[in-house]
Structure formats: structure tokens, C-alpha cells
Design brief:
Strand content: 5-15%
Radius of gyration: 21 Å
Order of helices and strands: EHHEHEEEEHHEHHEEHH
Helix content: 25-40%
């Protein structure tokens, strides 16, 4: 369950910020008695804020159960549109741009891998009350350790990596051999979701070092857990209330945001 808020991409940032705040409240007030809204409010009430050009904004108005917001300081110009929370969304919403600050054009993101890859949890301020995986899940293992020297196992590991079922990153020195994050060999790992994440990074032509950096970092949208915790099945009380499909959709959105961030 999520609520979408679309903001016209030609609206100045200050007005856009106000529009999003008003849209969130106005959307709740308009649809608060609807059964789907009540279910959404049981939490966590996800909201997605996107930019929309003139054509996208016009098309969005054709979708039922919405509220259009105007801005008096802009001569009552339409600035945003908020939709009733729901589970299923028209295909067009998948391709809308997430609303982010404009990146610094003088420092373009090149998608090059980070110079140092660590086999540790990146954020040391993780809340001790948050469920988490064992430290060993963050270890980086050479293929010889994983395969235990078995040539057939070695070959199967490489085939699995080619299919996107597992992934590896460069060593600290940036040289061969590549190293495999240990968590992905845990039987409890959500390998379907991991494969989706790997393929999303590959399709964007991003080094998988970026994926590892995301997975080992504490994520507030995951309740203070890391991506590794999430893929190993750990859940906060809030996330535990969601269905498996909703959890996977939430994780997909985080991955897509990260991919977009590196491409900007």
C-alpha cells in the first residue's frame, strides 16, 4: 500500500516543498474514510513523491481517486496531484521520476566503483534494539573458500554469478580475485529479491560494488536495518506487519532509488 504524490517539474523547489506537505494532508483528509486508506494507515504508510512533466501530469488526472492542488501565489496554477493509497497502480507510475534535489552538475556521477570495499557493516551507529544478522554475514570470501577447492563447485558458482543469483566485488586492492559477500550463501536469504537487485544494477551498467555498499549500510526506510538484514529475513515490528509482496515492493523501490542516485 502506498500513496503517490506528483509534483509538476516546472514548479520552483520552494513551492514544490509546500505542495507536497499540503498534498499529504489533503490526501489523507479526502480519503480518510475509505477502507484502503484505513488499511494504509495501519502502517507503515508509504508515500512516493515524483516529478511529472505536462503530459505526465495530464495523464495522471485520468486515474481515479485523486485530488489536485493549486498554488495561489502562482495564480492558482495546478502544482501537485495526490492519489488515494492503493496496492495496484497503473503502469505509468512505475516510470515516473522520483523527486530529488537537482544534482551538482559540476560534479557528475560517473558510476565508477568505489576505491575501497570493506567487509564490515558501514554504519557503526546501528541501534542495538534493531534485529540484525551476525557479523559473519558481512565477510567477503574468495571463491576458493566458498568452493572449498572443488572445481565443479567453482564452476557452478561462476554460473550462478552469470545468472545474477549471487554477486562479487573487487578486493581492497581492486584486483582479482573478486570476493563474495557471505550472506548470500545463507539458505534463509531471499535469493529472488537479491537476483532482482543484481539485475537492476547490471541493467544500469553500475559496478556491483555500489550494490554491496547499499546492502551493508543502515537504511532508515528499513527501520534501521541493513539490506543484508532484510534479505536474511529480519524484520522490525513495523515491517513484520507487511505481506511478503509489499515487503519486496518496498525493497525494489529502495533499490531503484539507489540506482537512480548513481546515474545522476
Amino acid at each position: 500500500m502506498k500513496m503517490y504524490i506528483l509534483v509538476r517539474d516546472d514548479i520552483p523547489l520552494g513551492f514544490a516543498m509546500v505542495a507536497v506537505a499540503h498534498a499529504s494532508l489533503a490526501g489523507y483528509l479526502k480519503f480518510q474514510n475509505d477502507p484502503q486508506t484505513k488499511e494504509w494507515l495501519e502502517g507503515p504508510f508509504f508515500k512516493v513523491v515524483c516529478k511529472a512533466n505536462t503530459k505526465e501530469f495530464a495523464n495522471a488526472k485520468l486515474v481515479a481517486d485523486h485530488l489536485i492542488l493549486t498554488e495561489s501565489a502562482l495564480d492558482q496554477q495546478e502544482v501537485a496531484i495526490v492519489f488515494k493509497p492503493r496496492r495496484e497502480w497503473p503502469r505509468m507510475f512505475k516510470y515516473l521520476r522520483l523527486y530529488r534535489d537537482t544534482p551538482d552538475k559540476s560534479k557528475p556521477r560517473t558510476g565508477k566503483r568505489e576505491p575501497v570495499i570493506e567487509d564490515t557493516l558501514r554504519n557503526s551507529t546501528k541501534d542495538a534494539s534493531v534485529p540484525c544478522a551476525a557479523a559473519g554475514s558481512y565477510e567477503l570470501l574468495p571463491i576458493e573458500v566458498v568452493s572449498q577447492g572443488d572445481i565443479e563447485v567453482d564452476g557452478e558458482l561462476r554460473n550462478r554469478e552469470a545468472r545474477g543469483e549471487i554477486f562479487s566485488v573487487l578486493s581492497r586492492e581492486g584486483q582479482i580475485p573478486r570476493l563474495y559477500p557471505a550472506f548470500q550463501f545463507d539458505a534463509s536469504a531471499d535469493h529472488r529479491m537479491l537476483r532482482e537487485a543484481v539485475l537492476r544494477y547490471r541493467l544500469a551498467n553500475l559496478d556491483l560494488s555500489f550494490l554491496w555498499d547499499f546492502l551493508r549500510t543502515v537504511q532508515q526506510p528499513l527501520g534501521g536495518m541493513t539490506g543484508v538484514d532484510f534479505l536474511l529475513g529480519y524484520r522490525t515490528q513495523t515491517l513484520a506487519k507487511l505481506s511478503k509482496n509489499d515487503l519486496r515492493e518496498h525493497f525494489r523501490e529502495l533499490i531503484d532509488e539507489e540506482v537512480a542516485h548513481h546515474l545522476w
